[in-house]
Amino acid sequence: MRTVNDLLAAISLLPCFLFAAAPELEVWLEPTTTQPGDIVELHAQVEGPEFASFELQIPKHDALYLVSKQDLPVDYQNGTYRQKSIWVLQTIQTGAFELSEIQATVQHQKQSTTQTIAPIAFKVDAYRTVEDSDTPLPLPERTRSESSVEVNKILIVSVLLITLGLLAIVIRKNESSTQASPEHKPAPTLDDLKALLDSGKLPRELIQVLLEQNNLPISDAQRKALEQVAYRPNHPTSAKDLRNTLDEETKP
User: Fold this and answer.
1) How far apart are CA 46 and CA 51, in angstroms?
2) Distance of alpha carbon 40 from alpha carbon 224, whole angstroms
3) pTM exceeds 0.70 for this model
4) Which one of 64, 123, 206, 224 is at 20 to 30 Å from 169 when CA atoms are compared?
């Protein structure tokens, strides 16, 4: 009789062990307060003592524009598997919103479970505006006659036409020389970016190309700093600041 009771007790505890081994899925947005044109990141991460994969179905949102998605390598530390993906989004409308109806499918031990993520609230604040002055601007004084103005217009148009013609000739020569000797340019590297940053330049187009590389050896903090510079032209980060960020993150 005691053996039967012990067996029943073990069976009753089995769901607890299964629940403890089940992976935990976390989904969050950062930052949650922005301005139009800012970059926000939707993070999804699953952790557990056993490997598990997941997929998110994110509905289209009127206030957000999907820039890119990055699947990070699986991390295993201290007996815990960690898989993470990041959706890079850009705000395009002002107001208070909710990112809702996100469906998550988690695959664990040949079993698939689907759940609905709780709504995530975020706010997009408008830029401050400066009130227009009621005082009209004064009209410029006339210092030239109508005939001289017309002559100047003709001269300006003539100079522009000549300049455009010369520019077209130069462009055609450059295109022909380029087509005559095509060269295969290697993919840009992180060292190329560092060299330009050392010279004081902030190459946003090069940063965007680097962010599209899946094997770029940078940390999450470095990637976020690069995204702010690449997709937000008015971001105050300088070339020196970005260079220091890359150096600090790569120190042992």
Assistant:
1) 9
2) 9
3) no
4) 206
